[in-house]
Amino acid sequence: MRKLWIDTDTASDDAVALLMALREPSVQVLGISVVMGNVSLERAVRNALISVERAGTYAPPVYAGANKPLYRNTDFAVVCHGVDGLSDRGYPDPALKAATGNAVDAMLACARANPGEVELVTLGPLTNVAVAAFKDLESFRCFKSVTIMGGALRMPGNWSPVSEFNIIVDPEAAEAVFHAGVPVILAPFEICTGESLFLQEDRDRMATASEAGAFAVDCNTVLIEYGKRLGLNGLCLADPAAMAVVLWPEIVREQQETYICVETAGKYTTGMVIYDYIDHLHRPHNGNVIQRIDGPAFKEKTIRCLSK
Ligand code: BDR
Ligand code: CA
Question: Which domains does the chain have, with CATH numbers?
């Protein structure tokens, strides 16, 4: 069975991605590390534990990690996910508790114990992951791959004119992870737009499919309203799109091996992901960029996964 480790700044779309991974029978989630990002570390840990409970399957350990970016200050994404990150719907506190121990050490121990087998999936800023690479590169390189929800390559940014949230919150961390020697699969924001948007009819199907499906729609109430303000006619689920690339790689329609890096010192472009699509820079390729997925297949598989 494939083995996953998930790093998440759990807010409402991370929650859906966690439900998907925990309900997909072909993978086993060995652990979850939490990082600040969409919300504070404390809220993100709470939301991760709620999500694990709502998945209704099994409970991998959840570890708290970084509570701030490597060098910068940050703002939380209240406008997208609400104050608590789950649309302020008043979910009760989880019965599950976070595991003792540090997220970085736990992640490294897991990679070391399963060399070449564990696929790392990141749904938030890359602070925990960069610290793991800095702390023990040899163990970090035991990860088989790292699939990153990050960047906006073929569309403007969602958190600056050119930058996507997960990357701009900690650009130095992202740059370090891109160059840490573990194969990168980059799932940029645009793959959750267009045909991948969850329209009203998709949300209705999901909400009536199961208790987990109802939670997945309900906790995204703020994100649905935010999308309308941006002129989107559906719910954009960035983390679930990245998770779907991992769980169901057959939905990928276009991808490209290329050199990827992050602007860390731009006047206007900090946090921008540079994707050298025709080898202008003549650098060794360090990542596979997912350029297009089958949106209807992504939605169908996600709804089915939450229906079981
Ligand atoms: C990313 O930022 C958050 O809003 C989402 O959880 C996703 O990880 C999208 O830019
Ligand atoms: Ca996230």
Answer: 2-307 (3.90.245.10)
pTM of the predicted model, to two decimals? 0.97
Ligand 1 within 6 A of CB of 149 = yes
Q: What is the CA(282)–ligand 1 centre distance, in A?
A: 31
For 61, other C-beta atoms within 10 Å of its C-beta total 19
CA of 189 to the centre of ligand 2 (A): 11
Nearest to 234 by CA among 226, 248, 224: 224
- CB 7 less than 6 A from any atom of ligand 1: no
- Is residue 10 over pLDDT 90? yes
Following DSSP, what letter does each residue of 206-256 receive, concatenated? HHHH-HHHHHHHHTTHHHHHHHHHTT-SSB--HHHHHHHHHH-GGGEEEEE
Q: What is the mean pLDDT of residues 227-233?
A: 86
- pLDDT (0 to 100) of residue 157: 87
Is residue 126 within 6 Å of ligand 1 at its C-beta?
no
Q: From the CA of 193, which ligand is nearest? A: 1
Structure tokens at 164: 């996507």
Q: For residue 37, is pLDDT > 90?
A: yes
User: Which pLDDT score, from 0 to 100, does residue 75 have?
Assistant: 84
What letter would DSSP give residue 117?
A: T
Q: Which atom of ligand 1 is nearest to the CA of 223?
A: 4
| Whether residue 140 has its Cβ less than 6 Å from ligand 1 | no
* Tens-digit pLDDT profile for residues 134-165: 999 999 999 999 999 999 998 888 899 999 99
Distance 290 CA to ligand 2 centre (A): 18
Nearest to 166 by CA among 145, 187, 184: 187
